[in-house]
Amino acid sequence: MTDHRLWRGVLVATALPLNDDLSVNHDRYAEHCAWLVENGCDGVVPNGSLGEYQVLTPQERARVVETAVAAIGGQRVMPGVAAYGSAESRRWAEQAGEAGCRAVMLLPPNAYRADERSVVAHYAEVAKAGLPVVAYNNPIDTKVDLVPELLARLHGEGHIQGVKEFSGDVRRAYRIAELAPELDLLIGADDVLLELAVAGAKGWVAGYPNALPQASVELYHAAVDGDLDTARTLYRQLHPLLRWDSRVEFVQAIKLSMDIVGRHGGPCRPPRVPLLPEQEAAVRAATEKAVAAGLA
């Protein structure tokens, strides 16, 4: 990784391996981070939604970051620092810096539907930790929408350097580029990868590379390099799995795919529950098809 903006490339929002008793298996997590890099990914994003950060203790959450840094180096680790309060998010950003990380990813306030002034104050507070901040726009789950005009303001005031765009509205890519051309757009949902890559995305905060890193990395680079024949073929093959990244059961689905390809996905902590039989069958069939096609 040569670009100082570590979020440029494929950063995997890592699933967190849990033991049968639902304790965190840090050794397996370290091995998973190293395996992802060995298979072409540029880095990891621990403590995102896929990493079940909401149900970790503060001690677990801090150790997850430290484990990733020890495994692959802080220059490849961009932790999620979301929290209900701005002071807490800033503390997590400071912890990331102390652990050796070079950037953090931050949701807007998500305990309530914050107004624009509150959103700006939130990002301003966390930026005081001194690390570059990549905003995470997920209006589906947070009920706070970082629309292009607001992103341009946050960037213009120096609070953010990039945005993980999860709204699913690919039209926003062009508006963001018009309003804030120096703000890095990152693909935030696996199932709009090709559309956002063509629109000029600089990176991908990705889910399904947890199970299929090499094929996913090949897809990303073909898309951003303009090799659309290769990209379209891979996208069609992978899309039955990629679309699970935008569904409520994305953590369970990706962990199941990991189990099927011989990684350790394992269980999830409550309140997440196992997939329904028909959901499990769909994920299993799509994963096995991808394996049979040589994509694992």
TrEMBL record:
GO molecular function annotation: 4-hydroxy-tetrahydrodipicolinate synthase activity
SUPFAM superfamilies: Aldolase
CDD domains: DHDPS-like
Active site, UniProt feature: 136, 164
Record key words, sorted: Lyase
Domain of life of the organism encoding this protein: Bacteria
UniProt: pyruvate binding residues: 205
Family the UniProt entry places it in: Belongs to the DapA family.
Name of the protein: Dihydrodipicolinate synthase
Organism from which the protein derives: Streptomyces viridochromogenes (strain DSM 40736 / JCM 4977 / BCRC 1201 / Tue 494)
